[in-house]
Amino acid sequence: MLKLKALLRYHNLGQADLARALKLSRPTISQLINHSMWPKTTPRADIEAQIVAWLNSFEITGMQLVGIFEEEKEEGNTKLAAGRCNAQRPEHRNDKKTTEEPDTMLLRKQTLTPQARMAFGLFRDPFVDPQSSAELFVSPEIRYVRENLYQVTRYGTFLAIVGESGSGKSTIRKDLHARLQAEAKPVIIIEPYVIGMEDDDFKGKTLKAIHICEAILASVSPGSKMPRGMEQRFRAVHNALKESHRMGNKHVLIIEEAHAIPIPTLKHLKRFFELEDGFEKLLSIVLIGQTELGNKLSENRADVREVVQRCEVVRLNPLGEQLGAYLKHRFSLVNKHLEELMDEQTLEALRSKLTGHGPKNQGSFSVLYPLAVHNVVTAALNLAAQIGAPRLSPDIFAEV
């Protein structure tokens, strides 16, 4: 079975849809995905390219595409294709990655060793989470996202913030809380608990409209009981929001890990957004999630078109050209100059390590997100201290 099958399932894409896009029969696609049986009539490379192009149309790109044409290995058993009808036997694959696939590995959580702290005079970890808004790195892009989120607290807005793991989504949310507290704004933040939330009930618990109603009532009207009937529940929520609004409050519903919201609940959010008091919206909505959230809000998905037409999607991109400025800011927080640790050539080595090309040259990818940068630089500092190097170098990054 190809890893492609798990990717399709995760993004709620059907094999029948893929078959129509490739103009192949459903049994042929089933044999390809489930048994690695590739049609004889069309070169495998052409079919792979068509599949990648189709996935790209749903904004499934970059690291999500790595290895999708490899076979899933079951514990103690590797599935091999046996018989075939209109397909040829899959090509032999070496365990070694081809040059077309990225050679980038995201490191586990890294912590500065005492030896590295002493060697480089780092008496505080430069990569701990910001302790205040003053410690937040504010690039032009972050400033835009930050201000966009702040404006949500003033006007009825439906916003989605999408970014890879470790791109800074949660930090921006914390910054909003701190900013509102400092300014004593009459804004009520409503955050349903998302512990254990998944997009289907087989993997975990789904977030449903009733759970959102409970969170709204608990935040806006503490102590009030949730009525039993569905009609009464939604009426109670609407009335509580109207009463709070007339007292001068604004309300913002923020859902973290929103990539795990099931499609039905995503569609229901549109109805929450339409709760009004006259011409004024009673509830702004902010969804914060990984790139899968962007796929669920794709313009190509007809089943969520009512949400897509109302929701602005803001993406947190890799650091890119801001990498040097970001590291300078981080090390300045611990009174250390970046130039003492690495030169421009070494900085470019770090940039190269976290960028590359996807399979079959389907564009470049970058994992130059804060968390990935933190782990790689920390591991490099630990290695440099271990071997007695006074500074970081391209060779050290190559060994990490």
What would you say this structure looks like, in words?
- The protein has helices spanning 4-10, 15-22, 26-35, 44-56, 114-120, 140-152, 169-183, 209-220, 230-246, 263-273, 291-296, 305-308, 323-332, 344-353, 370-387, 394-399; strands spanning 38-39, 73-74, 77-78, 87-88, 158-163, 187-190, 250-255, 276-277, 280-281, 284-289, 312-316, 355-357, 364-366.
- Strand 8 (276-277) and strand 9 (280-281) form a beta hairpin.
- It has three domains: 4-74, lambda repressor-like DNA-binding domains (434 Repressor (Amino-terminal Domain)), CATH 1.10.260.40; 114-129 and 319-399, Helicase, Ruva Protein, domain 3 (Orthogonal Bundle); 140-316, P-loop containing nucleotide triphosphate hydrolases (Rossmann fold, 3-Layer(aba) Sandwich).
- The protein is an alpha/beta fold and 400 residues long.
- The chain contains 16 helices and 13 strands.
List the helices and strands and how they pair.
Blueprint: H1 4-10, H2 15-22, H3 26-35, E1 38-39, H4 44-56, E2 73-74, E3 77-78, E4 87-88, H5 114-120, H6 140-152, E5 158-163, H7 169-183, E6 187-190, H8 209-220, H9 230-246, E7 250-255, H10 263-273, E8 276-277, E9 280-281, E10 284-289, H11 291-296, H12 305-308, E11 312-316, H13 323-332, H14 344-353, E12 355-357, E13 364-366, H15 370-387, H16 394-399
Parallel strand pairs: 5-10, 5-11, 6-7, 7-10
Antiparallel strand pairs: 1-4, 2-3, 8-9, 12-13
Helix pairs in contact: 2-3, 5-15, 6-7, 8-9
